[in-house]
């Protein structure tokens, strides 16, 4: 019988691999377009000049970031080029200090410390509204204090490094993540 | 014995040393969960975690290299082509691992510049090794690929298993190129990062271990080549047929379009199928031999691999992978539970099975048995199940209370640290981690002594198997 011949199964293996790889490549091209800054899901870097919030969208049935009017970070209006350089620096801070090996970004990383996807919007910073928030977060990153049970180590960030990391977190909070994390901050607000 | 097989023994030895270090750093990392200020600012959690997961990757990779160098001469009927270069690369690999480990331990992190990326720490989970070391690993993998391809070319015997292995080496090497960039856009960074992490661990590594276990089954049980090759092709069709688009379950929440929720959910729901096939295959083959094989530990570790892969990677993965559940389970201790179980079942048990085959071969024994391997088998598996159970309870508590009810904020995360189920889960994990370490110690004792005892005693099961 033909099923007893390994060549039959080999043909199936080759066909399924090639077909699925082709589908993946097509979807990858489409997805990369959506996740390029300025694409449908990822904002341009100069979004850090604006107010960002996160609320339930009843049409989509999930939480989505909303971009509001001007709300400057560190009292400076960044051009797209300046913002890209600052946020690029922020990414290098995040990689060099291996933040991802304690925290998660979009839920990816280690599970020892809180997820940072919407860290910019966290109720813990509620007493620092508007333009004060960036300075408060940068000060925390330079000299972390105890937040409840855990204490973040001092990773010796310079002011520039801390500000770049904060800019990164503000930009990241505006990425459309299909509703993750669900109901962020709602339970706290009640 | 071929030179290639002596190299295999060196690789397996190095793998076992790194396995031990992984256990040490794992237990160390578990302490921070119950004592959050443990070694704060001296040796932070992320350093312990980096050492734990990097030794994990490297010991498995060395185990796979060892397994292939062990079986390759038998498969091609000749010494491995370019063996001298392979021997040099083994020492290059070891030196690179030692230097990187020393830098991780003593330097830990650098400033936010290119120097840190090249020489200290790249800080992308699993891809922390600095770029110079990543180039070294790439060179080792290229030489390994050259050894396999050139040996196949020079040989008159080119089996289906060897062809699958060669085909698999291409993505194995190409995907590793993702260990170099530092993209600003986190969505793009993670998009490509998953091509490396998922398509290695849930696709190319599965095929690689499939080839290795095919050789192991032929040597262990004398299963016919036609049967193992047919099964291997079925596995390739199903693993890649479901696993390539199963990549989509990592694209639910990283900023990628919503269609990944349907595609990723559907294909990852199918991902357990090939793993179930492997269980059926292993049970059928060993059943036809009435569970009798001369090399008892290798047989039991092979069966543990089949079941562990299906339950740990398949069932545990399915349990948390549908987007409606994953919205809450993603990035919790639930993931850690799945990660531990899946790696153990899919890969660690397979490498240990090959280790016992190599031990038998190097000591010129057809049969291996004794008491110590049973203790290590029981302790390691019990230790792993306990860790997985503890993490699962903690992870479910986290998914329901921190994520779903608490809204995922820092406040909810901090509140979680005091919840009894979470705390008990973490203590359970640490306790069973110590049990696992005892199993490791027993495994090392057994591997160093088994087959060196009185010949008559050890040959007993072989007579039984032959009867």
Describe the structure.
The complex is a heterodimer of chains A (about 190) and B (about 475). Chain A has about 190 residues and is an alpha+beta fold. Chain A has two domains: about 1-35; about 45-190, Cytochrome c-like domain (Cytochrome Bc1 Complex, Chain D, domain 2). Chain A has five helices and four strands. A two-stranded antiparallel ribbon of chain A has the order 1-2. A two-stranded antiparallel ribbon of chain A has the order 3-4. In chain A, a hairpin with a 2-residue loop joins β3 and β4 (about 110). The model of chain A has no long low-confidence stretch (mean pLDDT about 95). Chain B has about 475 residues and is mainly alpha-helical. Chain B has a domain at about 1-180: Cytochrome C Oxidase, Chain A, CATH 1.20.210. Chain B contains 17 helices and no strands. In chain B, α8 (about 225-245) runs antiparallel to α9 (about 260-270). The longest helix of chain B is centred in the middle third of the chain and has 36 residues, at about 185-220. Mean pLDDT of chain B is about 95; it is low at about 460-465. Chains A and B meet through α1, α2, β3, β4 and α4 of A and α2, α7, α8, α9 and α13 of B.
């Amino acid at each position: 019988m033909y099923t007893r011949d390994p060549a039959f199964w080999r043909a199936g293996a080759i066909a399924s691999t090639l077909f699925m790889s082709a589908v993946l490549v097509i979807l990858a091209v489409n997805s990369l377009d959506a996740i390029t800054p300025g694409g449908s899901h990822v904002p341009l870097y100069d979004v850090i000049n604006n107010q960002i919030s996160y609320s339930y969208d009843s049409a989509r049935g999930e939480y989505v970031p909303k971009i509001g009017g001007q709300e400057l970070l560190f009292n400076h209006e960044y051009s797209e080029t300046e913002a890209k350089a600052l946020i690029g620096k922020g990414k290098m801070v995040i990689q060099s200090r291996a933040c991802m090996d304690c925290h998660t970004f979009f839920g990816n990383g280690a599970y020892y410390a809180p997820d940072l996807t919407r860290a910019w919007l966290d109720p813990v910073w509620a007493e620092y509204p508007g333009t004060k928030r960036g300075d408060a977060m940068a000060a925390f990153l330079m000299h972390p204090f105890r937040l409840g049970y855990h204490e973040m180590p001092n990773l010796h960030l310079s002011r520039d490094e801390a500000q770049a990391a904060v800019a990164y977190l503000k930009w990241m909070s505006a990425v459309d993540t299909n509703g993750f994390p669900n109901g962020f901050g709602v339970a706290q607000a009640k | 014995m071929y030179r290639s097989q002596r190299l295999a023994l060196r690789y397996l030895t190095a793998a076992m040393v790194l396995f031990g270090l992984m256990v040490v750093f794992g237990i160390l990392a578990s302490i921070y969960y119950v004592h959050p200020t443990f070694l704060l600012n001296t040796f932070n959690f992320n350093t312990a975690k980096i050492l734990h997961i990097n030794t994990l990757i490297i010991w498995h990779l060395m185990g796979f290299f060892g397994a292939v160098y062990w079986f390759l001469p038998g498969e091609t009927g000749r010494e491995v082509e370019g063996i001298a270069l392979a021997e040099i690369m083994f020492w290059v690999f070891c030196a690179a691992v030692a230097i990187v480990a020393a830098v991780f331990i003593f330097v830990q992190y650098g400033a936010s510049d290119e120097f840190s990326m090249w020489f200290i720490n790249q800080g992308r989970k699993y891809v922390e090794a600095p770029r110079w070391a990543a180039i070294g690993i790439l060179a080792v993998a290229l030489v390994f690929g050259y050894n396999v391809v050139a040996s196949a070319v020079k040989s008159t015997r080119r089996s289906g298993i060897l062809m699958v292995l060669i085909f698999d080496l291409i993505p194995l090497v190409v995907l590793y190129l993702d260990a170099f960039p530092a993209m600003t856009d986190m969505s793009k960074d993670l998009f490509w990062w998953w091509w490396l992490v998922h398509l290695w661990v849930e696709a190319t590594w599965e095929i690689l271990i499939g080839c290795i276990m095919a050789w192991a089954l032929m040597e262990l049980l004398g299963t016919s080549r036609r049967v193992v090759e047919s099964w291997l092709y079925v596995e390739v069709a199903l693993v890649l047929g479901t696993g390539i688009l199963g990549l989509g379950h990592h694209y639910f929440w990283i900023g990628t379009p919503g269609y990944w929720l349907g595609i990723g959910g559907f294909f990852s729901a199918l991902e357990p199928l090939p793993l179930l096939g492997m269980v059926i295959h292993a049970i059928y083959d060993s059943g036809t031999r009435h569970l009798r094989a001369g090399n008892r530990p290798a047989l039991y570790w092979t069966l543990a691999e089949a079941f562990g892969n299906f339950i740990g990677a398949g069932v545990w993965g399915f349990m948390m992978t549908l987007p409606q559940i994953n919205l809450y389970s993603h990035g919790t201790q639930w993931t850690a539970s799945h990660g531990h179980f899946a790696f153990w079942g899919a890969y660690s048990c397979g490498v240990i099975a090959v280790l016992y085959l190599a031990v038998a071969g190097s000591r010129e024994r057809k049969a291996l048995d004794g008491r110590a391997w049973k203790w290590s088998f029981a302790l390691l598996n019990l230790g792993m199940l306990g860790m997985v159970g503890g993490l699962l309870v903690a992870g479910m508590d986290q998914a329901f209370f921190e994520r779903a009810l608490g809204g995922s904020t820092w406040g909810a995360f901090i509140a979680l640290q005091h919840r009894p189920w979470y705390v008990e889960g973490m203590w359970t994990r640490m306790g069973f981690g110590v049990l696992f370490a005892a199993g490791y110690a027993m495994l090392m004792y057994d591997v160093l002594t088994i087959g060196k005892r009185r010949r008559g005693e050890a040959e007993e099961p072989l007579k039984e198997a032959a009867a």
